[in-house]
Amino acid sequence: MRAGSCDPSVTPTGACEHGGVLNTALPPTKRPIVYWFRRDLRLADSPALVAAARAAGAEPIVPLFVVDPRAGRGAGPNRWQFLASCLEELDRQLGGALTLRRAPGVGGAAAVAAIVAGFAAEVGAEIVVASGETTPYGRRRDRIVAERLAAEDRRLLLLDTPYCVAPGRLRRTGGHPYRVFSAFYRAWLAEPVEAPYERPAARFDALVSDGEATDLVDAAGRGYDVSPSWWRDLPLGPAPHLPAAGERAAIDRLTQFCESALPQYDRHRDRPDMAGTSRLSADLHFGTLHPRTVRDAARKTVEGPALDRFLAELAWREFFADVLWHRPDAAWHSWDPIGRHLAVDDGPQARERFTAWARGETGYGLVDAGMRQLLSEGWMHNRVRMVSASFLVKDLHLDWRWGARWFLWHLVDGDIASNNLNWQWVAGIGTDAAPYHRIFNPDRQAERFDPDGAYRRRYCADLPARLSIVNHKAERAEALTRWAAAKAAVRHESTAD
């Protein structure tokens, strides 16, 4: 089996333990092993859990989850409630052995490190095993946890990632990261990927009394706060129709998708009026499914254009994770320097327009339906996400980060890499972004992808007819004028240098 990409700074020894190599087994131990769950809330297809079970032998694995408000910063009640339900289901699968600890809201990585090290000492473990994290904060947190454990003669071992191919592994000639999706996708398809792993036979035990874990929903649900303050008059959730959570629900969704929508995926995926997509994004984000499992199931179900298109969508998720691995600053700063020069609106009128967009009251049916679906379900169809994002950036002339924050607040699948870099893609300022002049006309998009109006009626039936808050033709011209000015500013800047 292949070694994955590793961040040598994760472990104090510099060992390459961040990638998913299992042919070198973890050292056997005569002590309990702490398994630290993060974005891998499942028991099947977990190489890290398999390795822990092999090393533990007859010794117990002690499962731990640390509620980290810093890691969930910007998430509203939808994502926290889904997480809480995932934890409840995981605890049932573990026979009640999951221990929950909560880091203080201002503590960050150092507080998590103290919790993990203290827990390992409490149960007498020398090894903490986890699946590797890849976000900028997650990588920094793992480094700090590893250093804290090493100071106490304990080790943090990280195996696998939430991706088929670990971010940072694929490189162009010369060792440079990929900047264009098509080239990344070809390399991604050529990279061998292991078959899904079976659930390990392991003995799980709490070993300690844990009063904090008596109410997982309450403990996880206290993690969110409202930011910015002027959002307080907006609909902040929770959404009334969140999906079922946990590994079993995720497997059911995958099975249903493969049996029904996948064979027509290439034809129906852009139709919000049809059940043509997988709706597995939250499962992939929280790790109730690994993309390895999804990829394997898809390949066993179909071939041809439907499979090709679905695998490409999986690979876009991995491409953006790879971009963020190399450019952590791109989470909240435009990947392309032109974004720094693109004029955006601010002030009371801009906030009024944002409020209309957020409430689904723009007068453009497809945009409004999408925004109301987000408020109702904590999810939005991908085609409509693009149209709604384009409308905010190029029709309302607002900062893409306003929209990215709103999506992250409401989306159950809210992911810093996929969400924010997709926003930059739509805004024309990301890597391999859509050309800026590709400005979605929301009326034409509705005619093409919701031709009978079923999607709009489903979410906007109670909305009174209203005038559009902006004129698309006029705002398109204004957007192109601003883009030309930004390009001129970049040319001037480069000439001055």
UniProtKB/TrEMBL annotation:
Residues 31-164 form the Photolyase/cryptochrome alpha/beta domain. It comes from the Bacteria. One of its GO terms (molecular function) is FAD binding. GO terms for biological process: nucleobase-containing compound metabolic process; response to light stimulus; response to stress. Its cofactor is FAD. Binds 1 FAD per subunit. Its EC number is 4.1.99.3. Keywords: Chromophore, FAD, Flavoprotein, Lyase. InterPro entries: Crypto/Photolyase_FAD-like_sf (IPR036134), Crypto/Photolyase_N_sf (IPR036155), Cryptochr/Photolyase_FAD-bd (IPR005101), Cryptochrome/DNA_photolyase_1 (IPR002081), DNA_photolyase_1_CS_C (IPR018394), DNA_photolyase_N (IPR006050), Rossmann-like_a/b/a_fold (IPR014729). Gene3D superfamilies: 1.25.40.80, DNA Cyclobutane Dipyrimidine Photolyase, subunit A, domain 3, HUPs. FAD binds at residues 265, 277-281, 310, 313-320, 413-415. PANTHER family: CRYPTOCHROME (PTHR11455), CRYPTOCHROME CIRCADIAN CLOCK 5 ISOFORM X1 (PTHR11455:SF9). Belongs to the DNA photolyase family. This is Deoxyribodipyrimidine photo-lyase type I. It comes from Acidothermus cellulolyticus (strain ATCC 43068 / DSM 8971 / 11B). The lineage of its organism: Bacteria, Bacillati, Actinomycetota, Actinomycetes, Acidothermales.
